[in-house]
């Protein structure tokens, strides 16, 4: 399988500044301060403070209803903030949505929509280029490369409704890749997928972080897959802990997040 060619647009447009755009950005953090979300009368998140680093795979973990998806949506302006700020490179992230590729939970996507795999991935280009340019040679090449990268090129003409859960997730991963974003946000990408898809997803995450991208993933599985994450944000309405995986996965933090309902996780990795 191919790895991601971040320089593709540069080689087409002969614009070296594009390639520079994809070099490691050590200062490009997301800073979340005093973030709160209230749904009608229910408080979903209270006073969340954390920093998300580029070049590190960051997981948002916590029990059901902890506010994991809400945190991701609130960061992206998809649900209103009751309090707080979310800054990227010092400016509100909500005003920089073109830098973000967001893949919602599979259950929130209309899989009966009459579109082929190819169309769905190509549509990922629209935000970047507008409707007309999205069908340029660059967009077509990026779409081809992304589908090859996730092992879905032979399904290009297949309607998306006729794919397995894992295949659908890989198509949306490809759609995120063609957006050439700086920040990648995935809500529960590991739910209901096969082993092959899980392997592809973590390989791609690794390539993205190696290229200095921010990669943020909502996950609730405390099993073996957690060892792929560098940093964690552990929630239960409030922030329980944030930092490296080893710092966060302590008996005390897990007890606070899960009310004593999980065993102590010994991280030997
Ligand atoms: N649109 C909404 N309107 C009202 N309440 C909501 C809405 N979305 C989420 N909630 C509530 O906010 C809380 C946090 O929900 P959220 O989906 O963010 O949690 P989560 O940690 O992602 O949960 P899960 O792991 O079950 O997906 C829950 O109590 C949920 O019922």
Automatic annotation (TrEMBL):
Record family assignment: Belongs to the ABC transporter superfamily.
Keywords linked to the UniProt accession: ATP-binding, Nucleotide-binding, Transport
Occurrences of domain ABC transporter (ranges): 30-262
Entry keyword annotation includes Transport: yes
Pfam family for this entry, one: ABC_tran
Superkingdom of origin organism: Bacteria
PROSITE patterns on file: ABC_TRANSPORTER_1, ABC_TRANSPORTER_2
Name the record gives this protein: Metal ABC transporter ATP-binding protein
Native source species: Atlanticothrix silvestris CENA357
GO molecular function: ATP binding; ATP hydrolysis activity
Annotated CDD domains: ABC_Metallic_Cations
